[in-house]
Amino acid sequence: MSEFWLISAPGDKENLQALERMNTVTSKSNLSYNTKFAIPDFKVGTLDSLVGLSDELGKLDTFAESLIRRMAQSVVEVMEDSKGKVQEHLLANGVDLTSFVTHFEWDMAKYPAKQPLVSVVDTIAKQLAQIEMDLKSRTAAYNTLKTNLENLEKKSMGNLFTRTLSDIVSKEDFVLDSEYLVTLLVIVPKPNYSQWQKTYESLSDMVVPRSTKLITEDKEGGLFTVTLFRKVIEDFKTKAKENKFTVREFYYDEKEIKREREEMARLLSDKKQQYGPLLRWLKVNFSEAFIAWIHIKALRVFVESVLRYGLPVNFQAVLLQPHKKSSTKRLREVLNSVFRHLDEVAAASILDASVEIPGLQLNNQDYFPYVYFHIDLSLLD
After folding, report:
1. Cα→Cα distances 135→42, 122, 127, 131, 143, Å
2. Residue predicted with more confidence, 354 or 76
3. Does the pLDDT value for residue 354 go beyond 50?
4. 149: part of which helix (H) or strand (E)?
5. What DSSP character marks residue 370?
6. Which of 24, 75, 199, 270 shows the smallest number of beta carbons within 10 Å?
7. Cβ of 200: how many Cβ atoms within 10 Å?
8. Counting Cβ atoms within 10 Å, is residue 372 exposed (0-12), middle (13-18) or buried (19+)?
9. pTM, full prediction
């Protein structure tokens, strides 16, 4: 499973024994794989500052998770036909996300633990804000390019009535620069090919004999040329329509056709040039954002543990990886049973004693007698 539970309990002898009981029960029952989750000794500051940080870290946690999901989705969108290789780019420090989480070590160089907690949190917040800003600008530029290219490509994907003809016709198909003659393009249903060949010359006066040629065809019909005098264009269109032949409004403009082809070539080239750098940027910065997110989880465990268990700082954090979805309910029951004795301490630290607490039961899915945070990587699969 790509799901983790990050919990903490006081580090005194009684609770360390409780953690051992938890490890023994979960191991024997094959409920989860548990490892210690190392968190540095930070400068605590005042309890008031911790309360403020608790709220700020909650918002930052949500923001970071949203950001990495958006970056993962951007990788999917950029890779298009190579979506099967997306996971190769969703790494953290060069390893898969599960390995990074289970072997987490605080990055002292990037986030010095000797700094005040407020400074550490501010550093992470600014880093994530910069990544988000860059993500928006880079993906916006790429998506605009992609949309323009798709719009051009769509023009060449419709039927003969709607698609562009600039990539089908050539200069040789038309009588050009004539004061009197003009070449029209006519769409003829396939069952009517024979009728067209027999009647096109007589649909109007002044149609050039043997001037029709099949240029291309699709499932429904074919695109034919016909050359006639300019002065009978409207008459020819009317007679053609009566015979279920459709004159396609198109006049050969070599400069416009050349411009369209150059525009397509330019967009294809620009997309190819931007693809590699954007994918590399996403890979590097997804890693940075994910690493920052797990550091936020560690900070939240620290702050909430101090607020819940008090000073001096003494708690043990543990990372649990449930073995399967069906075992999570049983795992919750085991944890609640093992740490039942923390109930009064936890309740007193987070709730006013004068307030009625109707939901303070061990089976309440929103309440934990221990510090608890959830890490769900399945949303990135």
Report:
1. 31, 20, 12, 6, 12
2. 76
3. no
4. helix 117-155
5. S
6. 24
7. 24
8. middle
9. 0.78
User: Do the Cβ atoms of 274 and 141 come closer than 8 Å?
Assistant: yes
Whole-Å CA distances, 206 to 29, 200, 226, 323: 93, 11, 11, 83
Amino acid, single-letter form, for residue 29: S
d(CA 102, CA 108) in angstroms, rounded, equals 18
Whether cis (ω within 30° of 0) applies to the bond prior to 312 is yes
What residues contact residue 237 under an 8 Å CB cut-off, 6+ apart? 247
CA nearest 5: which of 376, 379, 300, 380? 376
Q: What is the DSSP letter of 208?
A: P
pLDDT digits (tens, 9 = 90+) for 65-92: 999 999 999 999 898 766 668 888 999 9
d(C-alpha 196, C-alpha 337), whole Å: 86
127's tokens: 């880093």
In angstroms, the CA 43 to CA 121 distance is: 12
The answer to whether the beta carbons of residues 13 and 332 sit under 8 Å apart is no
Residue 362's pLDDT band (cuts 50, 70, 90): very low
Rounded-to-integer distance, Cα 218 and Cα 225, Å: 15
pLDDT-based confidence at residue 155 (cuts at 50, 70, 90):
confident
Which amino acid, one-letter code, is at 376?
Answer: D
Contacts of 247 (CB under 8 A, 6+ apart): 184, 185, 186, 187, 236, 237, 240, 241
Distance between CA atoms of 316 and 322, rounded to whole angstroms?
19
Q: How far apart are CA 185 and CA 222, in angstroms?
A: 10
Distance CA 135, CA 137 (A): 6
Give the number of other CB atoms < 10 A from CB of residue 363: 10
**Tokens in use for 258?**
């050349």
Amino acid at 339: F
